User: Which sequence fits this backbone?
């Protein structure tokens, strides 16, 4: 997907669903900006995204129901630099 198409897709997601995808480059970057708990909402059938979350050190914290659909809340506590 071309970068422009990806950005347009994210803008449509934000308009239609109230959220889009965001990327944090590193745990240190997030912690340096005052973020102490990072979460990802992942659909239960989205195995590739679950693998990415686990690879980042996230664990399933709880199930959730978000925007009319089931989701898994993955999370990780960040240490301040």
Assistant:
């Amino acid at each position: 997907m071309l970068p422009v198409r990806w950005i347009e897709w994210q803008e449509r997601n934000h308009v239609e669903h109230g959220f889009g995808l965001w990327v944090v480059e590193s745990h240190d970057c997030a912690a340096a900006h005052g973020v102490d708990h990072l979460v990802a909402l992942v659909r239960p059938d989205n195995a590739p995204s679950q693998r990415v979350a686990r690879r980042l050190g996230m664990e399933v914290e709880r199930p959730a129901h978000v925007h009319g659909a089931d989701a898994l809340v993955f999370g990780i506590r960040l240490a301040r630099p």
Q: What stands out?
A: The longest helix spans residues 3-17. Residues 18 and 67 are 9 Å apart (CA to CA). Residues 3-77 form one domain.
